User: Fold this.
Amino acid sequence: MEILFEVIGELLSGVVEYIEDNKKISKWIRYPILIFSMLFVIVVLLGLLLLGILILQKDIIAGVFIIGIGLLLTFLLIYQIYKKS
Assistant:
């Protein structure tokens, strides 16, 4: 099951990357797909941060670890966006 999710994730990320770089695809198709993928990534990052805050109340080490992962992924995303533009 894990391999199936990995393959689907790789396919989706490859399609989004192809659509992002290909100017031949209509803006009406390209922009909604890019916006949807960006919103998905933002929701996952916010979910990690909120999960870390909720876990922080019960277990400090695990909460700080999850918040750290969320912040690291957020900074890496910002770095990649800055580097690409």
Summary: DSSP finds three helices and no strands in the chain. The longest helix spans residues 27-56. The mean pLDDT is 89.
